[in-house]
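Tutorial handout. Part one gives the primary structure; part two gives the three-dimensional structure as tokens.
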Amino acid sequence: MSQHAGKSGDTSSGTSSTSSTSGGTGDGAEHAPNQKMALAAMLFAVSMTFIDQTIVAIAAPDIIHELGLSASGMQWVVNAYLLALAAFFALGGRLADIFGHRRVMVIGTLVFVLSSVLCGCVPNNDFAQSWLIIFRAVQGLGAALMFPAALAVVIAVFPVQRRGRALALFFGLSGALTAVGPLLGGWLTDWTWRAIFWVNVPVALIALVLTALAKIPNIARREPLDVPGAILVAGGMALSVLGFQQASAWGWSSATTWACIVGGLLILGLFGVYELQQAHPLIKLRVFQDRAFTVDMVVLFFAMLAFVPVFFFASVYAQVSLSASPNQAALYLLYFFIGFGIASQWGGRILDSRGARPAMKLGTALGAIGFALWAGKMTDLSMHDQWPYAALAGAGIGFLLAPASTDAVNRAIGASYGEVTGITQTVRNYAASIGLAVFGTVLTHVTTNRVVDTLESKGVPDGAAHSAAHTIAESITGNADSRTPTGSGPVATALRDSIGAIRMDFAEANRAVFYAMAGALAVAFVCSYLHPGTKVTGTNAVAAPGRTQVP
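Part two.
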């Protein structure tokens, strides 16, 4: 991915030499690009990819209510985007190298915005769930084409001496927009949840107009495309996540569940063996020979099991168990982001002064403690009492995320900035997909068991209690809202009498999920001790001069 750019001292990527590369082409090369306008264009483009990681979580209960989706179906709506982004990110970077960064960025933006419009136009019928999942996956594909191409554009149009600041701004602002998703989602959902997808249209138009005005050259390198590698990594990720996601429906004792999980992991192993034998691999896995880089990736993997899924689970918990509105749920998530934003700045300073290991140790420890304390307060059903722990959990992620990502980039000598960023983004999004799938299974399982106990305590027979509990768990909202069950049968009567108890059942299920997130951060804490602890200096870092934090 972007093999021609990103190394310290790379003289082929300044503005005076963006017209061509060895063996490449450069249409529009007679004009020097407008650097500020190009950076603004790329920021508008990638902002959509970050916002869409979190914005859908706020609207989940409304989407489920209007379209009649199941819990697993809604989780697939969220996860399809993350999984496609992870599976095709490296492919997007390679296509950008082959066909030109500007061209692929424009194509990715168009794919993303058209699929966004189609997500918002989902029909209210039996095909709604499949429609949303399909076009959310297409959104992820568009993001996978757009993001690495946009990164390569920024690298190409800025000379080495200015690239560090440009990349810090690119990642800093675009990453910060993750926090905008819940707030924007809450505001738009008050109008219609469909607007959370349509809002991408004006943003995409601005990005495309600025791209045209910036006169960005279309740099391309004629290199072979690793099609078998792309198929293997996409297939392995999809199959393994399918197994984790469907475990709640198929059961952990099901041969199908384990066939998908083990089969997917074996395919990913085959992908690794295959890539090491290729002259032009999709992903340069040899960078994992550096122990520090490997530890950075492992820590990021376990941290990301919690980081993106927390938005979905916390949002739905707030709207179901706490009876919060979408706007109130967005403010609930804001506690997490306040801690995250403040700690991110401190994490960067620790990275500069002492290296990545202290920041990762502190972040993983605070994250594990924060998520555990947050989980313990969930059954109090008080939003006010939870904010310190939500902020502490966010601070933990904030301390570790940028230092681990930046340290990985700086240590990957022999690979470009774009290539290593491709690896980190693939690991992060794949981990988020697995986290959402596994924790979604935990949520459904615990909710079902708790609701069965509640209904049986009201005299509902075992079979009827299991059937009703499964229906409630699959509807996420657990009938704990204004949709009071109708009918005069014993099950309907028990449900009407148990709405408050079912809210508590759902809170207890989320408590189990957040304890599991704390466990993931605890594992990351142990792994952080394996980092050699040496500090990367500007003389051996792959990134451009200046602190470049990758959020």
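Part three, for discussion. Residues 1-29, 477-484, 538-550 have pLDDT under 50 and may be disordered. Residues 1-19+32-221 form a domain with the Growth Hormone; Chain: A; fold (CATH 1.20.1250.20).
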